[in-house]
Design goal:
The protein is mostly helical. It has a domain of 82 residues. The protein is 40% helix and 6% strand. It has a two-stranded parallel ribbon. α4 links the parallel β1 and β2. α2 crosses α5.
């Protein structure tokens, strides 16, 4: 989101659980489009709140898995949040070789980029 649309919109990435480390294949395929994830750490919805983020200040939650959709819908009972579910291919565990795994992760990345541009329009060309 930040790569395509800049930093005018406040964006946070969270999940249902905190795995801390980002998958190396995710890092590799995002690096191909100039997105640096190697220092990124995942956090959960609960951690987001514990670190002082007010979930009520967010307008939209985009869930990429049924579990994250369920958690976001649960939170929307307490906060006014719009929740959209984007069923994106989960590439973990797919592919036997390194290249086959990279192809699956690229497909998931490209699905996300496509959904972003469908939802928010063409990216800002001025974004580096």
């Amino acid at each position: 989101m930040k790569k395509l649309y800049g930093t005018d919109t406040y964006v946070q990435s969270v999940g249902v659980e905190n795995d801390l480390e980002i998958d190396g294949f995710s890092i590799a395929v995002c690096q191909e489009m100039g997105v640096e994830l190697s220092r990124h750490r995942s956090r959960s919805f609960d951690e987001l709140e514990q670190w002082g983020e007010d979930l009520g200040s967010f307008d939209l939650v985009i869930a990429l898995s049924p579990a994250s959709q369920a958690r976001a819908l649960e939170l929307s009972r307490y906060y006014h949040l719009d929740v959209e579910y984007w069923p994106i291919l989960d590439p973990t565990g797919m592919g036997e070789t390194r290249e086959a795994k990279l192809l699956q992760f690229r497909a998931a990345r490209d699905q996300i980029v496509s959904r972003l541009t469908d939802r928010f329009g063409a990216p800002d060309c001025a974004t580096p």
